[in-house]
Design a protein that fits this description.
It is built from 9 helices and 4 strands. It has 197 residues and is of the alpha+beta class. The chain has a 4-stranded antiparallel β-sheet.
């Protein structure tokens, strides 16, 4: 069975896409990030809670604050990426539910009155949005370098607040002509992953 998405788009988003480790010096514009967001904001989340929040690291001053918080193996590539995004969850997302989920605005208090419930839901739904964000970067013809090798508590303290939890950091840009990608690692087969009951 063929997919509705044409083969070139399948390659761009999936088969030929890799996690990038080196980028060209070409800048990533605010307009590109706006276009990416305007595409991926339609990701499904429970009660349309949309807990993902994005902090863009552009300035040298912000990069210098971020550098010591990165794992050593991630530091150089993060410092040289044209744009770095901290993806985080808003644990107070429920405050937006009357607007985001008008069909049942009471969900704010019925389901999400307790902070631990919100944190768990924000983590799951924010991760789903983060996956869409990576696909959006690829759809824009850019490469993404998502990482979890960093000091989570340090990033929260330096760039966020107690109501926001970091999920991952993503380097964004045009891949470098040389050294951008490692060879593709193996994947599990359909039979290893899918069970029918």
């Amino acid at each position: 069975m063929s997919l509705a998405l044409d083969p070139a788009a399948q390659d761009l988003l999936f088969r030929e896409a890799h996690t990038a480790s080196a980028f060209s010096a070409e800048p990533v514009t605010d307009e590109q990030i706006q276009a990416i967001y305007d595409l991926v904001k339609y990701a499904p989340t429970a009660f349309n809670q949309s807990p993902l929040r994005i902090v863009l690291i552009r300035s040298e001053e912000a990069r210098e604050r971020l550098a010591p918080l990165m794992a050593e193996g991630n530091r150089d590539k993060t410092m040289s990426a044209p744009l770095v995004a901290i993806l985080a969850t808003d644990n107070e997302f429920h405050e937006e539910l009357p607007t985001l989920f008008p069909a049942f605005p009471q969900a704010k208090d019925v389901f999400f009155a307790e902070r631990p419930v919100r944190e768990k839901s924000a983590a799951a739904n924010g991760a789903l949005q983060a996956g869409y964000f990576i696909l959006g970067i690829r759809a824009a013809g850019l490469a993404a370098g998502p990482m979890t090798g960093f000091d989570f508590a340090g990033v929260q303290k330096e760039f966020l607040d107690d109501d926001h939890t970091p999920l991952m950091i993503v380097n964004i840009g045009k891949p470098a002509e040389e050294g951008a990608y490692r060879p593709r690692s193996p994947r599990l087969s359909y039979e290893q992953v899918v069970t029918t009951v």
